[in-house]
Structures are given as C-alpha cells and as structure tokens.
Specification:
This protein has a single domain, classed as NADH Oxidase (3-Layer(aba) Sandwich), CATH 3.40.109.10. It is built from 8 helices and 6 strands; from the N terminus they run ααβαααβββαβαβα. The two termini are 37 Å apart. Bound molecules: 3-iodo-tyrosine. 3-iodo-tyrosine binds next to α3.
Length: 233
C-alpha cells in the first residue's frame, strides 16, 4: 500500500526531509555537536537585558518537541519582573537552606562537592529572565473535563532539552535549576493544580567573570554501546 492510498481517520500529509549527501550530513552533525559541546551550565549571570524575542524563540524551539500522544504537556512561564524574581529567590533560598543546612545529606554532599553550590541563589535576582517549565499531568479541556497525559516527564524533559539548545545557539546561558521541593513556584506564578513545576531556568548572558567547574564529558565509549551484526566473512 502506498501512502497515498493508505486509509486515515485523521488528516495526514506528505512529509520528506532533504536527502543530504553523506559527507554533508556528517559535517552538519559534527558542527551541531561542536556547538553543543560549548554549552555549560552557568551560575554567574550578567544583568544585561535579553530581548523577549529570544525567550519566544527558545520556547518555539521547545514547543517542537515530540510528546506522548502529541499532548504537548508543557507550559513555559517567563518573567523579567524584578519583584517576582525576588520572591522566587527568597522562596528558593528557604528551600535550599533546608536542603543544605538541615537535612542529613552525606550522599548529596559527595555528589555535589565539585559544583560548589550552596543555599545562596543570587542568580535568581541577577539573570534578566526566569523561565519555569511546568509539566501538565492533566490538561483542562474546553468542556471542563481533564485529559490525562502520558509520558509527561519524558515529553517535558525533551522540550527542556530543545529549549536549552536553542538558548545556547543564541549565545545565551542557562542553568537547569531544581530547588526541591519547588511547589512554591506554582503559587508565586499563579499556575493551576493540574501542572507541577519541572525546571526553573535562569536565562541571560554569562557574567564577565563567570567561571564553571572543570568537568569531563562521559567518553563516547561509555555513552554508546553498539551491538552490530557480525561483518560477513
Ligand atoms: N537543588 C540544590 C542542590 C543541587 C542538586 C543537584 I542534582 C545539582 O546538580 C546541583 C545542585 C541547588 O540548586 O543548589
């Protein structure tokens, strides 16, 4: 059966990608990888403004993510309001104080030591934008009922990855910040109970004196294992 005679319940349309010559395809892959390999998570931001269009473009990129049953279970809430940012900082620091100072955290302390993070989250005031990705476990439908969404974390995680990549390609830095617990973000940003905060992204240019910890990426041989069919003899 060819695509044109395949019966459909829902409208379909033809789709093709340009068939790149192999060398061109690999060249683009190399270029894309080299670009992404320059990305680092940043905790020291410049207060310089970032145009709202950059945030819109990054969310347009995120919004192309594949999602379970195409339910697109994300909302991105962006604020450049200094008062809102400060309320978020104060609430995040309160959670983080509990995390760093009050809980028993031997495992965490070991895992996080290299990052030298602490309960102070100045970047939440300094970065010109805070963007919070919310995950919708359910989506309210126009008839007032709730649609159950599938693979919500996977879908929103992929969308966040595209968001991060889009920011990077625009020369902008971010941090995947997850104050724990972060339910306060629903209150401060006035979001419905059908969605939960997923990741808080400060967005801006790196500060002039920004530093990042020296870290290695996992070697390809550890990140990728092939099980290929044996070469013919
Ligand atoms: N939420 C804390 C702790 C923290 C946790 C992980 I996992 C990190 O990669 C970094 C920090 C904080 O933001 O400081």
């Amino acid at each position: 059966m060819t695509s044109s005679t395949r019966p459909h319940q829902h409208p379909f349309e033809p789709y093709a990608l340009p068939r790149l010559p192999v060398e061109e395809s690999l060249r683009r892959g190399e270029e894309f990888f080299q670009e992404l390999d320059q990305r680092r998570s940043v905790r020291w931001f410049s207060p310089d403004p970032v145009p709202v269009e950059a945030i819109e473009l990054a969310v347009r990129a995120a919004n192309t993510a594949p999602s379970g049953a195409h339910q697109q279970p994300w909302t991105f809430v962006a604020t450049d309001d200094p008062d809102l940012k400060h309320r978020i900082r104060l609430a995040a620091e309160e959670e983080e104080r509990r995390f760093y100072l009050e809980r028993e955290l031997p495992d965490w302390h070991g895992a996080l030591a290299r990052l030298e993070t602490d309960e102070h989250k100045e970047f939440l005031d300094v970065a010109p934008w805070l963007v919070v990705a919310f995950a919708q476990k359910h989506t309210p439908l126009p008839d007032g009922t709730l649609q159950k969404n599938y693979y919500v974390s996977e879908s929103v995680g992929i969308a966040c990855g595209l968001f991060i990549a889009a920011l990077h390609t625009m020369g902008l830095a971010t941090l995947t910040h997850t104050p724990n617990p972060m339910a306060f973000l629903s209150q401060v940003l006035d979001r419905p109970a059908t969605e939960r905060p997923f990741i808080l992204f400060p967005v801006g240019y790196p500060a002039d004196d920004c530093e990042v910890p020296v870290l290695d990426r996992k070697p390809l041989a550890e990140a990728l294992t092939f099980r290929r069919r044996p070469a013919p003899r």
